[in-house]
Amino acid sequence: MSYCREPVPDLLKRFVEMRFKLVGENGSIQTNDEGLLSQLGGRHQELFRGFEIRIVREAEARWMSAPTRVVCSSTCCILLSESNLVMVDRVRRQTFAFLSADTDASELMDHLLPVSLNHDHGHLPR
Fold it and tell me: What is the pLDDT of residues 85-95, one digit of tens each?
């Protein structure tokens, strides 16, 4: 039996270092992408609302045109597209996002985070 000497890739990005952080009165944003934080400017305060937000920039993922799906309940919300994933835990007040290399800060601020943080689950069909 032979063993592979190559390291196994962390495909789930469990061990991504979040070296860049913004802290506000009501929450924080952590990311592995310094450029993303600089693109946010002062707009990050409007996102916090008591949430801890962690954003992993996925360098290998590229944007693909696909319908965005939102699955939502009173306790969580998941926004999924071909190249981005945003998960919100409303009970723990935590948000995790995995963004493609092609997703810029304005897309994150104007669409992805507001839809997932503010999605009204009360209007979903039962």
Answer: 889 898 898 98
- Tens digit of pLDDT for each residue in 27-71? 888 999 888 888 776 666 666 678 898 989 887 765 556 667 778
Question: What separation in angstroms does the CA of 108 have from each of 8, 98, 125?
Answer: 30, 11, 27
8's CB contacts (< 8 A; 6+ apart) are none
Report pTM: 0.74
Q: Tokens in use for 90?
A: 């409303």
Sign of CA dihedral 88, 71, 114, 100: positive
Residue with tokens 């707009």: 43
Q: Is 56 helix (H, G, I), strand (E, B) or coil?
A: strand
The H or E element that residue 40 is part of is: helix 34-40
